[in-house]
């Protein structure tokens, strides 16, 4: 996963300066095996991704006072506290060296993610990509919603809990299923990002399918593209379709 994509998923724009630094150092620790960071290096890294470049002396003092960092063996350098590193690993389980092979910036779902899963999942994923690439954004939104619904159902099937999302008329509506899934922590280790956006995918698809005067635009899809990719990957693992 590219650094800028990770920062978007992590909501870095809403974080404090020291939290931004923590995210940047976490990314480089996981992806590049780099654990020790000099203050000037951190300042330049913040600036390179579009954040304000801090005063080195002020940032150094913040690092010293912060519980997120500890001094490293390298003179003048710091590293993430082990507790902060573990917390971030749990919060961002999708980040790994392998994820560099998965992420592609020009489509919604990269082929390496869905290839070899199930035929109907592959077809829906290809249709999502094709509709986006051909500016059929309402179609893309509806298909995104459909894939999320299918994968959530497969999660319950895998857990042997399918009856929990059914009533006398068949499957409950997707809104109820999503609310139940999140409130009951059905998917273990689901990221906070996915928990917060599952219903957004449902709503986006519903608007495109049912609102007479609404037409989805590229920006509507682009805004949730990375989060959708993350949700699909997490649900594929949770349903044991990929492992």
Q: Please tell me the overall pLDDT.
A: 90
Global Rg: 20 Å
CATH topology name of the largest domain, in short, is Four Helix Bundle (Hemerythrin (Met), subunit A)
Largest β sheet strand count, sense and barrel closure = 3 strands, antiparallel
The CATH class designation of the largest domain is Mainly Alpha
What is the beta-strand fraction? 5-15%
**Spans where pLDDT lies below 50 across 5 or more residues:** 99-106
Q: What is the ordering of alpha helices and beta strands?
A: HHEHHEEHHHHHEEHHH
Domain count, please report it.
2
CATH architecture verdict of the largest domain: Up-down Bundle
Protein name: DUF4145 domain-containing protein
Organism: Emticicia aquatilis
How do the strands and helices of this protein lay out in sequence?
Blueprint: H1 3-9, H2 17-32, E1 37-38, H3 39-48, H4 56-65, E2 69-71, E3 77-80, H5 82-91, H6 99-102, H7 111-114, H8 119-133, H9 137-159, E4 166-167, E5 170-171, H10 174-183, H11 192-210, H12 218-238
Antiparallel strand pairs: 1-3, 2-3, 4-5
Helix pairs in contact: 8-9, 9-11, 9-12, 10-11, 11-12
Could you characterize the architecture of this molecule?
By secondary structure, this protein is mainly α. It has two domains: 3-99, Arc Repressor Mutant, subunit A (Orthogonal Bundle), CATH 1.10.10; 105-238, Four Helix Bundle (Hemerythrin (Met), subunit A) (Up-down Bundle). The protein is built from twelve helices and five strands. It has helices spanning 3-9, 17-32, 39-48, 56-65, 82-91, 99-102, 111-114, 119-133, 137-159, 174-183, 192-210, 218-238, and strands at 37-38, 69-71, 77-80, 166-167, 170-171. A three-stranded antiparallel sheet has the order 1-3-2. The longest helix is centred in the middle third of the chain and has 23 residues, at 137-159. The radius of gyration is 20 Å and the shape is elongated. The model is unreliable at 99-106 (pLDDT under 50).
């Amino acid at each position: 996963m590219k650094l800028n994509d990770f920062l978007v998923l992590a909501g870095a724009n809403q974080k404090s300066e020291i939290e931004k630094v923590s995210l940047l150092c976490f990314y480089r620790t996981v992806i590049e095996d780099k654990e020790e960071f000099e203050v000037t290096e951190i300042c330049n890294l913040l600036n390179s991704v579009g954040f304000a470049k801090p005063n080195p002396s002020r940032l150094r003092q913040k690092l010293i006072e912060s519980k997120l960092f500890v001094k490293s063996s390298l003179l003048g350098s710091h590293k993430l506290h082990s507790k902060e590193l573990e917390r971030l690993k749990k919060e961002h389980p999708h980040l790994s060296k392998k994820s560099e092979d998965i992420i592609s910036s020009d489509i919604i779902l990269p082929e390496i993610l869905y290839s070899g899963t199930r035929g109907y999942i592959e077809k829906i994923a290809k249709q999502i990509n094709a509709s986006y690439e051909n500016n059929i954004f309402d179609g893309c939104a509806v298909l995104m919603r459909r894939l999320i619904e299918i994968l959530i159902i497969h999660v319950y099937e895998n857990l042997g809990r399918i009856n929990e999302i059914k009533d006398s008329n068949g499957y409950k509506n997707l809104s109820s299923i999503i609310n139940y899934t999140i409130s009951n922590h059905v998917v273990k280790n689901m990221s906070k990002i996915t928990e917060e956006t599952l219903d957004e995918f449902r709503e986006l698809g519903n608007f495109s399918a049912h609102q007479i005067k609404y037409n989805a635009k590229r920006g509507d899809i682009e805004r949730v593209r990375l989060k959708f990719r993350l949700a699909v990957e997490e649900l594929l693992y949770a349903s044991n379709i990929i492992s």
